[in-house]
Amino acid sequence: MKPDLLQMGPMYPPTQKVLDETYTLHKLWEATDCDAFLASVADKITAVGSTGGKGIDDATMGKLPKLKVIAHFGVGVDSVDVDAVKRRGLTLTNTPDVLTEEVADLTLAILLAAIRRVPQGDRYVRDGKWLKGPMPLTASLQYGKTAGILGLGRIGKAIAKRLEAFNVKVAYQGRSKQSGVPYPYYADLLSMAKDVDILIVAAPGGPETRGIVSRQVLEALGPEGVIVNIARGSLIDETAMIEVLKSGKLGAAGLDVFDKEPKVPEELLALENVVVQPHVGSATHPTRKAMGQLVIDNLAAHFAGKPLVTPYSG
Ligand code: 8YV
């Protein structure tokens, strides 16, 4: 008899294949009447698989009296009601570490793409404009730039390491000053934004951080300033960001995530000083495979009565 697993949404296909082979899967996203579906499986569900796009709320947890573990595909757990997990005495696992370097790579890619206008250069060549003359010159990541990292966790540190290799000075802001970190710490985000050229958003999403990159913070970066968001769209006041990018009060943006993704405001897409990506920080085959393996291993540990591999500790 295969154990029962409730899944909120589909995972990376090779991971999904393993889950299909290992478990009797109950796929909530395929149900037409979710309440009836949950009621029909409730007495056999001890574990749930969730994803960034399909998380789990308090009400759903409440309908699963035997639930013990939520195995989340992703490092960010903002699609899961973490307070409810704690209150209900459940355990949540996520997929840290294995995506750190990948996400840091894309951060540098979109930072450079935004400053050096890489997508625009590509279009310039393809559109035959180069035949008529050189592309206009761009801003530079060099000449003593400083980047402020909002959220110096695992990913923030991997970004910092790369920035150092690019001759960029690093500062950071977060919940607290960290010991053994060589970069200057700012207790206040606005103060850091005033002092840096580039702001890199790498902090967790969720209600606590919603909108913390405010209009004031964005304006403090200035007309030559650059914002890069690799974390969650919710951290930035998106309406304000569009306005300051449009008016030239902020220089450029490199964005992998958006507040209402996959919907991206048309006004943002109309701007030449913005480079966008479809939330692909961790989206490579080897990294998604490694993330999926952690989901598989955490579920296997749960059903074997062993300690979970990567319990969420945030
Ligand atoms: C995924 C992510 O897009 O790990 C995260 O927090 O944002 C991404 O790796 C997503 O969570 C997959 O479900």
From TrEMBL:
- Cellular component GO terms, alphabetical: cytosol
Domain D-isomer specific 2-hydroxyacid dehydrogenase NAD-binding stretches: 108-281
Pfam families in alphabetical order: 2-Hacid_dh, 2-Hacid_dh_C
EC number of the protein: 1.1.1.215
**Assigned keywords, A-Z:** NAD, NADP, Oxidoreductase
GO MF annotation, one:
gluconate 2-dehydrogenase activity
Q: Where is the D-isomer specific 2-hydroxyacid dehydrogenase catalytic domain?
A: 30-308
Q: Known InterPro entries for this protein? A: D-isomer_2-hydroxyacid_DH, D-isomer_2_OHA_DH_cat_dom, D-isomer_DH_NAD-bd, NAD(P)-bd_dom_sf
Please give the Gene3D superfamilies that the UniProt record associates with this protein.
NAD(P)-binding Rossmann-like Domain
The UniProt entry's sequence similarity note says:
Belongs to the D-isomer specific 2-hydroxyacid dehydrogenase family.
Name listed for the protein in its UniProt record:
2-ketogluconate reductase
Organism of provenance: Usitatibacter rugosus
Q: Print the organism lineage.
A: Bacteria, Pseudomonadati, Pseudomonadota, Betaproteobacteria, Nitrosomonadales
